[in-house]
Design a protein that fits this description.
heterodimer; A: about 475 residues; B: about 260 residues; four-stranded antiparallel beta sheet; disordered C terminus
Chain lengths: ~475, ~260
C-alpha cells in the first residue's frame, strides 16, 4: 500500500500544472544562481589577480624595501560566490606592516554598494527563501486538499492504513520534489567547469554537503507544511498558518535572535575601543617626546653613521612603546572579542530555533563564508605578519610599522644605479581556508540539527494525520 | 423488520448502531438495518438525519459510541482493513485525482482496493459499461463533468468487485439523464448480487429501484418498507408525514447539520 501511495504521489506531483510552473521557475533560479556565482567568481578572480599584479608592480617600481607599501588580499573562492555569507561584508585588503594591529578594509560592497541593498542571488538565497516557499506552495493542501476533493474518503474506503498513507505521502512528496530540484542543481554543477570555474575535490565535497543541507532544509519546510495541512480543514487556513510560520522561521527569528543577544550581552562599541587605543598611543608618544628631543649623537660620530644611530635610537624607542601598546591593545582586544564572541554565540544559539538559521549556518560554514571567515583571514594575516617582519628586518635592518620614516639618500658618488626590487623575494601570502574535513566538522552540528528538524516535523505530520478527521 | 422466506447472510448490517458526538449531539440512535446479497437499501431522510453518519460508520470514518457496523460479518470498526476488502464506496461528489486521467484514477483506486490483476482492456470495458466515451479515457479528470466523474466512481466500484457497495447520495447534482443512467447501473449491480446501501434525497428514484426503503429521522430509523409494501403507496406523502414531526420539533441548526450530514 505504501508503494501505491508513494507512486501516486510522485505521479500527482509531476502531472500537476502547479509543479510545472514552480519547477520551471525554480530551475531557472537555481541555474541562474550557479551562472551568476560563476560570473561573480571570475570577476572577483580577475580583480584579485589585478590587485596582486598591482602590488607586484608597486614593489618592482622601488629600489628600497623601506619604500614598499605592501598589502595582502583575500583571494576569492568558488564556493564563496555560490554561498556568499559574510564574504562581501568583510574587508578584503590588509595593509601590511611589520608590527602593530592589522585592519581589513575595502569590502566588496565598497565597490558595488548596490549589492549591499539587494544582496546576491546565491544558492543560500534560492534555498533559504525560494525553495522554502516552493515547499509551502506545493504542500499546503496536501492533506486537507484531498479531504475537500473527496479523494481521502475514497482512498480510505479501501483497506489502507493511515500510517501507510501518510508515510507514502511524505516520502513521495519529498522524493518527487527533491529529485525534481536535483535536476537543475546538477545542471548548475555541470555548468561550473564549462563556465571556467574549476573546483578542487575538497570544494566538490563541500558543495555536495551544501546541496544535501539544501535538500534537508527543503524537507523541513515540506514536513512543516504537510503537518499544518494535516491539522487544518481548509487549505486557505493552512496556507495562512504556513505563511506565518514561514515569516517567523525565515525572517523574524534570525533577526530577533541578534537583537535579543545584543540586549543580553553588552559589547563595548568598537569606536570606543579604538579611542582608548589611540589615547594610550598618544600618551606613550608624549612620554617619549622629551627623549626624542634630547637625543644627541655620541661624541665623534661620523656623519655617515649619524642616520643609522638616529634610526636605531628611534627604532628602540618605537619598539619599547609598541610593546606596551601591544600589551594594552591585546587586553582590550581580548575583552572585546570575548564579549563579541559570547554575543555571537548566544545569537547563533537562539537563532537555531529556526531551520533557516541552521541552514544558513551550515552552508556558510561549509562554503567558508561564516563569521569565522574574518577571524581566519585575520589569523592568517597575523601569521604572515611575522614572516613579513622577519623579511623587512633582514632587508632594511628595522621592523617598520606604519608611520613616518627617514631615508638618507647620498648622491654624487659613482655607485651603480640601484636595481629594482624583485617582488618574488617577498614572502607570499597564501590563504589556506578550511579543508573539507574541517568544514564538515564545523558544520556537523547544524547538519545534524537539520536532520533532527526533519525527523521532528515528519513525525509531527505523521502524528497529526493519525488523528485527522477523514470525513 | 424485514420479511423474507429464504434469506441470504447479511452483507451490510447495522446492529444497534449509536453515535453521540462530544458536544452531546446524537447522530445515530440504536440503528438496526440489514442489506443482503442482491438487495438495494435506500436510506431517506433530511439533512442531519444520520444517513451519511451511517455510511461513515461502515467505512470506519467515525467510531460508534455503541453498537456495530458489520460488513460481510466483520466489525468495520474493530477490523477496518479486513472489512473494507468487502465494500466499495461511491461518494456524493466523486472528484478523484484531477491531474490523473480516467485510466490512471481507475488503476490507482482499483489497485488500492486490492485488485492488481487488471489490464487496460478491463478498465476500458468498465468505463464503456458505465457509459464513458472512449475519447475521455485518457483525459485528465479536471476536465470532466460531474456526471463523467460519477461514472468513473462507479467504474471503480465495479472493478473492485466487492460484495457490498455504499453509495452516499450518488445522484445528487446529476442531470436527469445522468441520474437515470446511474440508476440503471446500480440496478445492474444489484442484479449481479451486490448488496447496496444508498443514502438519497431522491424519493422517486429510491422507490424505483430500492428493495427496502428506510426513513431516518434524528438518527433513528423511524420507518422501513419493502418494495412490496410501497406498491400503491405515495412515498412522498409517507416521507413528509414522518419528517414533519421532526421538522417541527428539532429544526436543524448549522452546526448540527455539519455534524450529522
Amino acid at each position: 500500500m505504501f508503494k501505491f501511495i508513494f507512486i501516486k504521489e510522485l505521479r500527482d506531483i509531476i502531472q500537476s500544472s502547479r509543479f510545472t510552473i514552480s519547477f520551471a521557475v525554480c530551475s531557472v533560479l537555481i541555474i541562474l544562481a550557479f551562472v551568476m556565482g560563476a560570473q561573480n567568481y571570475l570577476s572577483s578572480k580577475a580583480q584579485y589577480d589585478a590587485a596582486i599584479q598591482e602590488n607586484r608592480n608597486q614593489i618592482a617600481a622601488h629600489t628600497e624595501w623601506m619604500m614598499v607599501e605592501h598589502s595582502i588580499t583575500l583571494p576569492p573562492q568558488p564556493l564563496m560566490t555560490l554561498v556568499t555569507g559574510v564574504s562581501n561584508d568583510i574587508g578584503r585588503n590588509i595593509a601590511m606592516s611589520g608590527r602593530g594591529e592589522l585592519r581589513a578594509e575595502n569590502t566588496r560592497f565598497n565597490d558595488e554598494p548596490i549589492f549591499a541593498v539587494f544582496r546576491f542571488m546565491d544558492l543560500e538565497f534560492i534555498f533559504g527563501i525560494v525553495l522554502s516557499l516552493f515547499a509551502k506552495i506545493f504542500a499546503y493542501d496536501a492533506i486537507n486538499g484531498e479531504k475537500n476533493r473527496g479523494t481521502l474518503k475514497l482512498c480510505f474506503a479501501n483497506p489502507l492504513s493511515r500510517a501507510n498513507f501518510i508515510a507514502g505521502k511524505l516520502v513521495g512528496s519529498f522524493v518527487g520534489l527533491s529529485v525534481a530540484l536535483l535536476i537543475p542543481i546538477l545542471i548548475g554543477c555541470a555548468l561550473l567547469p564549462v563556465l571556467g570555474v574549476q573546483l578542487t575535490t575538497d570544494e566538490w565535497l563541500k558543495l555536495s554537503l551544501i546541496l544535501i543541507a539544501g535538500i534537508l532544509y527543503f524537507g523541513v519546510f515540506l514536513a512543516i507544511t504537510i503537518a499544518i495541512s494535516a491539522s487544518t480543514v481548509k487549505p486557505s487556513n493552512a496556507f495562512l498558518i504556513g505563511l506565518v510560520v514561514w515569516i517567523f522561521a525565515v525572517l523574524i527569528i534570525p533577526r530577533t535572535s541578534v537583537l535579543i543577544s545584543g540586549r543580553i550581552v553588552d559589547v563595548p562599541n568598537i569606536d570606543e575601543i579604538t579611542a582608548q587605543k589611540n589615547r594610550y598611543r598618544t600618551q606613550l608618544f608624549d612620554e617619549d617626546r622629551p627623549k626624542m628631543s634630547n637625543f644627541q649623537l655620541p661624541e665623534g660620530t661620523e656623519i655617515e653613521n649619524a642616520m643609522t644611530a638616529f634610526q636605531s635610537f628611534m627604532s628602540d624607542l618605537a619598539s619599547a612603546r609598541q610593546e606596551k601598546i601591544d600589551v594594552f591593545n591585546a587586553r582590550l582586544n581580548e575583552e572585546y572579542s570575548n564579549k563579541k564572541r559570547a554575543q555571537e554565540q548566544l545569537a547563533l544559539s537562539l537563532s537555531r530555533i529556526s531551520p533557516t538559521s541552521v541552514f544558513t549556518l551550515v552552508t556558510t560554514q561549509l562554503a567558508g563564508t561564516s563569521l569565522n571567515l574574518q577571524h581566519n583571514f585575520m589569523d592568517e594575516a597575523y601569521t604572515y605578519q611575522n614572516a613579513y617582519a622577519d623579511f623587512m628586518q633582514e632587508k632594511t635592518g628595522s621592523n617598520r610599522s606604519s608611520g613616518f620614516r627617514m631615508i638618507m639618500i647620498t648622491t654624487g658618488g659613482d655607485e651603480e644605479e640601484p636595481e629594482p626590487l624583485d617582488p618574488d623575494e617577498l614572502p607570499q601570502f597564501i590563504f589556506s581556508g578550511q579543508s573539507f574535513s574541517e568544514a564538515a566538522q564545523a558544520g556537523m552540528i547544524d547538519l545534524s540539527l537539520l536532520i533532527l528538524f526533519n525527523l521532528i516535523f515528519f513525525g509531527g505530520a505523521f502524528r497529526a494525520f493519525l488523528n485527522y478527521d477523514l470525513r | 423488520m424485514q420479511n423474507s422466506t429464504i434469506q441470504a447472510a447479511p452483507l451490510l448490517e447495522a446492529v444497534e448502531l449509536t453515535k453521540v458526538y462530544e458536544d452531546g449531539v446524537k447522530a445515530l440512535n440504536n440503528l438496526n438495518l440489514v442489506v443482503r446479497e442482491g438487495e438495494i437499501y435506500a436510506m431517506l431522510g433530511g439533512n442531519g438525519a444520520g444517513k451519511t453518519t451511517t455510511i461513515n460508520a461502515f467505512l470506519d470514518f467515525i467510531q460508534p459510541t455503541s453498537g456495530k457496523a458489520l460488513i460481510n460479518g466483520i466489525d468495520a470498526n474493530a477490523l477496518p482493513l479486513e472489512a473494507k476488502k468487502h465494500v466499495a464506496f461511491v461518494s456524493e461528489n466523486v472528484q478523484l485525482y484531477p491531474n490523473f486521467t480516467a485510466m490512471q484514477n481507475l488503476d490507482f483506486f482499483v489497485r488500492l482496493g486490492g485488485k492488481s490483476h487488471y489490464e487496460r482492456l478491463d478498465y476500458e470495458r468498465a468505463l464503456h459499461r458505465v457509459g464513458l466515451q472512449s475519447e475521455a479515457f485518457d483525459r485528465k479528470l479536471k476536465d470532466f463533468s460531474k456526471g463523467m466523474r460519477q461514472k468513473c466512481g462507479i467504474a471503480i466500484a465495479i472493478l473492485k468487485d466487492a460484495p457490498a457497495i455504499l453509495l452516499d447520495e450518488p445522484t445528487s447534482g446529476l442531470d436527469p439523464k445522468a441520474g437515470k443512467e446511474f440508476t440503471r447501473l446500480v440496478a445492474e449491480l444489484r442484479d449481479e448480487g451486490k448488496a447496496i446501501l444508498m443514502s438519497t434525497h431522491d424519493i422517486f428514484r429510491a422507490k424505483e429501484i430500492a428493495d427496502y426503503v428506510g426513513i431516518l429521522n434524528n438518527g433513528e430509523l423511524v420507518a422501513e418498507k419493502t418494495k412490496a409494501e410501497l406498491e400503491g403507496v405515495n412515498l412522498e406523502e409517507l416521507y413528509v408525514e414522518y419528517m414533519a414531526g421532526y421538522m417541527d420539533e428539532a429544526p436543524v441548526s448549522g452546526s448540527l447539520s455539519n455534524n450529522l450530514s
